Amino acid sequence: MATKFLSPKLLNTFPSFTRFLNSASTASLAAVASLNFDEKPEPAAVEKQPTSLKQESITNATLDLDDHQRLFGSIPTLNLLRSSANLGLAANERFVDFGMWIVNSRLMETSLVRDAILKTVRHTFFQHFCAGETTEEAADCVRRIHDKGFRGMLVYAVEHTSDNAGCDRNLEGFLGSVELAKSLPASSVSFVIAKITAICPIGLLKRVSDLLRWQYKDPSFYLPWKLNTLPIFSDSSALYHTLEKPAPLSPKEESDLQLAHQRLLELCQKCVQDNVALTIDAEDTSIQPAIDYFTYSSAIMYNQDGNTIVFGTIQAYLKDAKERLFVTTKTAQSLGIPMGFKLVRGAYMSSESKLASLLGYDSPIHNSIQETHACYNDCASFMLERIADGYGAVVLATHNVESGQLAASKACDLGIQKGNQKLEFAQLYGMSEALSFGLRNAGFQVSKYLPYGPVDMVMPYLLRRAEENRGLLSTSSLDSVLMGKELKRRLTKLQFAKSEMASPSSMKIEIGTH
């Protein structure tokens, strides 16, 4: 019974551990879980230097991802077991498909079933991938990861909203995230994350995106409500979402658009006041033009005097990602606006391809994963070069080891300083732990993406993580393999200690010392 929740890969890595679990008593397992095994201090955390101190260059950017003891030595055994179990379940496509079917079915309308499912999720995937249900739990999570040398990206995990009342409630949640960041230890929070779909009705975002696309096709098309912004499209951008000239916004739509702008401006003002950076998440291409419009118009207002407060997000799996990044960044630089970006690969692959196919167009996503990797690495290289020249900022959000290594080497070659506030690596909480620790050990700033909120509110986030990352989890076994090796090392050490204690010589020593 003790082994049925563990990843098959983990069990295959050390069969003796399986036999031990099957034969161990509950008390024995509890004892193992509580053991530290390593009295030596954990590896040095990312330096938290005052800006007045002289910073040193990162001279050796080689990521050591082989030393499992150094990477995971500070993690309690019970946590390693739980992480391996959750990763194993998340990598099982049949399990994920069944779970998604259950959650999206009418069974969730039955209170008894719903309560049972939410309780199960709370103690498995939610606990693994999320920072908690309340601000207090999220704060505790930030402190825990900060003790290990990481920073937190606070994500009040609310998503699509269809009415202004809901948008107002969500704004209060985002403002609460900024207040939470302000209350935590200095430098422990790198960003607050917000979704425009949470503070602007999604139907309006689609309408605004249609109008922006049509204006790109026909520059004479006048949009009276449009604020100053940076380039949103490039020549390679997909415009098939808008095939006919859209009607102008109605007075009610213009009023709702103004309300949405006011919500974002209030959030930006709070971030400026408390000196907390804000990153706007990207979403699917049907509404991304409006999201970029909100982001860039706010960046023009609030990214001042070299201080990058508002960050946009570029999804490298889109064919136009690199060109848009280049055009937008160069325009912002020419206007003296310090622009920051979070670089990701992308999270809406299946829906994007289905929509394009339905409309009879090629997918906006690269034709191969290799092309996506190349685009991501080119975008990262471009932004690192800007930072080395003293412009802009970037968050390299990646679970890909090769991309992490290439970016680390590039930063080293460019002489980017350790602790440079313009460069941050990031991974989702509960994922790519080996890469996170490796980057931290090499001297880089590393953040973990920390969604929090009630389980039922965070459920859409968890479903998306499961759907988009199951391929990643099933093909990239680095964390599972290293965790398995570390658990095997601890088991071997425990067995050796037991045999030493049971040996006649040790018995004589014990008797002689009493």
UniProtKB/TrEMBL annotation:
<feature type="domain" description="Proline dehydrogenase">
    <location>
        <begin position="143"/>
        <end position="474"/>
    </location>
</feature>
<comment type="function">
    <text>Converts proline to delta-1-pyrroline-5-carboxylate.</text>
</comment>
<keyword id="KW-0560">Oxidoreductase</keyword>
<dbReference type="Pfam" id="PF01619">
    <property type="entry name" value="Pro_dh"/>
</dbReference>
<dbReference type="GO" id="GO:0004657">
    <property type="term" value="F:proline dehydrogenase activity"/>
</dbReference>
<comment type="similarity">
    <text>Belongs to the proline oxidase family.</text>
</comment>
<keyword id="KW-0274">FAD</keyword>
<keyword id="KW-0285">Flavoprotein</keyword>
<dbReference type="GO" id="GO:0005739">
    <property type="term" value="C:mitochondrion"/>
</dbReference>
<dbReference type="InterPro" id="IPR015659">
    <property type="entry name" value="Proline_oxidase"/>
</dbReference>
<dbReference type="GO" id="GO:0071949">
    <property type="term" value="F:FAD binding"/>
</dbReference>
<dbReference type="GO" id="GO:0010133">
    <property type="term" value="P:L-proline catabolic process to L-glutamate"/>
</dbReference>
<dbReference type="InterPro" id="IPR029041">
    <property type="entry name" value="FAD-linked_oxidoreductase-like"/>
</dbReference>
<protein>
    <recommendedName>
        <fullName>Proline dehydrogenase</fullName>
        <ecNumber>1.5.5.2</ecNumber>
    </recommendedName>
</protein>
<keyword id="KW-0642">Proline metabolism</keyword>
<dbReference type="InterPro" id="IPR002872">
    <property type="entry name" value="Proline_DH_dom"/>
</dbReference>
